[in-house]
Amino acid sequence: MAELLAKYNYWIYALLLCVGFYGMMTKGNLMKKLIAMNIFQWAVIFYFISIGAKKGGTVPIIPGGHGGGHVVVEATSFINPLPHVLMLTAIVVGVATTGIALALLIKIYKRWGTLEEEEVLQRLRDRDEVKG
Amino acid sequence: MTHSTLPLFALLPSLVGAILILLTGERHRNLREFWTLAASVSKFAIIWSMLPMVLEGKVLGVEVLEIVPGVGLELKVDAFGLIFALLASGLWIVVSLYSIGYMRGLKEHAQTRYFFCFAMAIFGAVGVALAGNLLTLYLFYEILTVATFPLVAHKETEEAMRAGRKYLAYLLTGATLVLFSIVLTFSLTGTLEFTPGGFLSGTASKAILSLLFVTYILGFGSKAAVMPILEWLPSAMVAPTPVSALLHAVAVVKAGVFCVLRVILYVFGPKLLTDLGLWLPLAFFVSVTVIGANLLALAQDHLKRRLAFSTINNLSVIILGAALLSHDAVRGALLHIPFHGFMKITLFMCAGAIYVKTRQDLISTMDGVGRQMPFTMGAFALASAGLCGIPPVCGFISKWYLCLGAIEAKEVFFLGVFILSALLDAAYFFPIVYAAFFKPPKHDQIKPHFDDASPWLLVPIGITALGSMVLGLFPNLSLRFFDLAGQVMKAVLAGG
Amino acid sequence: MGIMAQLPALIVVTPLLLAFLVYLVGIFRPRLSYPLVLLGTSLSFIFSLGILYQVLHSSAPLSYHLGGWEPPWGIEYRIDHLNALVLAAVAAVAWLVVLFAKGLVDREIELQKQPHLYTLLLLEITGLFGITVTGDMFNLYVLLEIASFSAYALIAMGGRGAAFAAFRYVIFGTIGACAYLLSVGYLYILSGSLNMADLKGIIPGLLHSKALLVGFAFMVMGVGIKMGIFPLHSWLPDAYTLAPSAVAALLAPLFTKVGAYVIVRVTYGVFPLSFSVKDYPAAEALGWLAIGGVIFGCVMALAQRDLKRMLCYLIVAEMGYILMGVATGNRTGITGAVLHIVNDAFMMACLFTVVGAIHYVRGTRDLDDLKYLHIQMPLTSAVLVVGGLAVVGIPPLCGFFSKWYLILGAVEARRWGMVAVLLLSSLLNAIVFFRLIERAYLEVQPAEAFVPNGGTHLKVKLDSLPKGMIFSLLLLASALLFLGLFSGTIVKEIIYPFVNGL
To answer: Which terminal CB of chain A, N or C, has fewer other CB atoms within 10 Å?
Structure first.
């Protein structure tokens, strides 16, 4: 039991994931879907970052490491930098996705005047373009 | 196997011809017709040139491409294939002459498409004949189906479209079963080569082999129009008569029968079939078609439909002969393939000539047409006599051997089937001939004086009718069918 | 050999740089944007052939270390027989579709906006190539997202409901991408590596771990959404139908195929062969999904009246075939799946371009408006016949051969359900396509408007299509024939080395 609780980072990420997923699937407002999507993405980002953390570890920067030369380091005292690096990329991806999605929402709003999925679908059906 | 590129050259004329026809189009119709005739003559010539070598016992082969690792796109010319190839290519010449007269006589539409598909169909048929393994066979078999579809639906009427759809439905479903069989065969044995005497012995359990046999027979049987998968053939009679003539009396259905015999003789082999005891159920199964088709023929008033059912009957007769697995029965079956082709094509061409001249296609309205068209009806009488088994027309020879074969196999029941079938043949052919010559014309379209069909139509009819008789008297003349059949027997039955 | 060694990177970098160039040039001279795009795709095609040549003549996969960093610390582009083949196919189809696209783009998009579309197109191609050549799991995610973004934006450029369809695609696509990212995370936690080749060595030691299974499951789900596997396909029909025709012609054949490649690569290139078959019944489950997908796709395709939508459902069915091949778990089935990736890319490109051409000339995509097509557009109709017969599986066209290996693989794996569905679907496809062929060729006696004098005077110049479109249609149709005739060679020379190494 204690072990399960110790892995609380996984619980948090799983919770956020579910919240995001629930939002995307059930909410009818497109903006809410988008927000839920963001939560979903962030869940994954938290997950990655959390696995890189280490009790008592420090920021992975070697002082004076630039300029060549060799410095003796104790690798185990640093937290894992790789997930952070990966997540930098993933955050950028997330931002770009949000940007595209927002642009699309603007376009949809301009055209249909609403951001409610049901209403848009109804208007599309009336024009016989989207089959459900 | 002797390596030779002749089989490849044998296939090319129809393919090249088809493309040339398509490019030439309606604007230069005489040039287009020339392509058809040139292609058919050259094709026949090349195939005929292979005859001496095959009769010596050689098998000419060439592998064009390795199309699947382990299996090639392979052409192999053995005696059996040559029988069918000679028949298809030879009759293509005849039917092309006939087609030209018929299509122009009726001022039919879409003639370029017609001649193109015809050439492609022959390409497919001869490809089936010359295929060296099951995969190559399947390739050409499918080409044949696809190429003949536009021919069946040619008239583009509601009825024609329905017939076309039915055609596709039956044949493609059959092809699917065949594909399954081929894949299973490959999975069991790792090879698809046709081998005289079969190559499936000992590869799987009795149950699996029996299942495989059933799927092969049903699959190929759809094209060979065995009961109950035969409804497409009578419906396809809505096509123009030359189409019915060559394709459904000679090329398409004969391809089906050819494939069935390939399976019996070159995939399973007589020995395996005897061991599995499968020949007897097959024989019973087709006997039902033999008798059933003839009974149905009696009930038809539409001439071409009656002929269609007669074809169905004859095809199953061929399969029955092969199923009996005795020397003479198989010989009779092999001979009946070309002999029936000659006779049946004569009958169809006559039917077409009658339609062109009098616009009649129902038998009940054909009284007295013999007076108007004595040559046509004379040929009809000759050919139908042959189909009933009356000498000296060639049908007598094949039926004779079939009966001998039934006796040899000690199967009196099937002897009875053959005889009953012949009697029924007489029952539905004789009245047609009688009414044509001895009854006064009922319909005002039929003139009481001489007004036979144009030479374009009569000459081909004459060739095949006389051919039927000549083959009856000298079955080994020029095309050497008799010897070819003998070669097949030596290869297949000697081994088992 | 300078340039030859740089090819793996060049093939991704070229379209990327050209994308920016096109955008900049497009501000001043919009008309120049198309030639640049064509140049980019032609170069990429040549590069891909160069890569294929190299791979066939070397004993080990090509390995390119980005930035000089050695794997597994650095990002590696790793090209073996599998990706070389897929790369060549993707590059070829991309080139052919770009060749085709000009006419449609000129019609549907205003001149000022065209450079934007072309920029996005090049970015899309960058992403697709990148996914194919990379040997690093995370790098794949990045490139997958590049391709996806471009796709979202490209689709939204269509009229009317396209923005909405694109938005839905964004939602679904992001779920997919995040799922994939999660799986990368799981694998990283377990192994400490992101490099595919490296993982291949580490995973066999981890087979007892449940986390591994979860990682695999997330990966399949994620890529499955992108690939359009039933039942995760629901974004597909709307998105590709409402996108501009040229965009659909590029995305539909390629994006899904590249996704399929990823599944094959991960299932068999990273995870060992035994994983999906013996250790966990993943193959079993995937098989049932695949069967469902094929049946669903074929039946829905029958029900459609819009040609483009019909093709979209067929894509779902084709993805089912590939998944079936993967799910058989034996070498023959995998061969079939890989061959089908290549074949289907060409087949779908062919069919989508036909539909695009019909739309260009007749302005319609409705099934019932195909009358007299063979008179007005003879070449296009002929290509339609070729494409349709290929999908049905008539030899010697390519579609038959992938079906052959798939059926053989299913028989070997004793999965009779798959065999039955494979055979049955051919018949369903036959109904779909022969219906089209009937409408195009066999309608009752044509009206005077189309056929005066039995066609002698009707000199429709090349189907009324621009040269680029005709050229690409004919090339695609010929490709279907050649791929079929030479499938034996392709399988023996290229696919077998990959498959036998599993």
So the answer is: N
Q: How far apart are CA B333 and CA B395, in angstroms?
A: 11
Smallest Cα–Cα separation from B220: which of B92, B75, B318? B318
Give every CB contact of residue C2 below 8 A, 6+ residues apart in sequence: none
Joined tokens for residue B298: 């009696």
> In chain A, which residue's Cα lies nearest the Cα of C74?
A82
- Residue B51 in any domain: the answer is no
- The total number of structural domains in chain A stands at 1
Chain A partners within 8 Å of C69 (Cβ):
none
Predicted structure pTM score: 0.90
Tens digits of residue pLDDT in C5-19? 888 888 999 999 999
Number of domains observed in the structure of chain B: 1
CATH number for the domain harbouring residue A104? 1.10.287.3510
In a domain, B37, yes or no: no
| Contact between A90 and C181 using a beta-carbon 8 Å cutoff | yes
Cα–Cα distance for residue pair C190/C206, rounded to 1 Å: 8
Look at the alpha carbons of B182, B188, B192, B196 in this order and tell me if their dihedral is positive or negative.
Answer: negative
Residue type, B34: F
pLDDT digits (tens, 9 = 90+) for C85-111: 999 999 999 999 999 988 888 888 888
Confidence (pLDDT) at C44: 92
Question: Which residue in the set B66, B150, B186 is minimally distant from C408, CB to CB?
Answer: B186
A51 in contact with C, Cβ within 8 Å: yes
Q: Are strands B71-77 and C62-65 parallel, antiparallel or unpaired?
A: unpaired
Are B143 and C394 a contacting pair at CB < 8 A?
yes
- Phi/psi at A116 (nearest 5 deg)? -90, 125
| Greater model confidence, C22 or B492 | C22
Distance from CA of A107 to the nearest CA of C (A): 7
Residue contact C175–A104, C-beta within 8 A:
no
What residues in C contact A116, CB-CB < 8 Å? Answer: none
Nearest CA in chain A to C153: A100
| ipTM exceeding 0.95, yes/no | no
User: What secondary structure letter does DSSP report for B365?
Assistant: G
Examine residue A44 and state whether it is found in any structural domain, yes or no.
yes
**Owning domain of residue A117:** 2-53+76-131
d(CA C292, CA C231): 8
Of chain C, the end-to-end C-alpha distance in Å amounts to 31
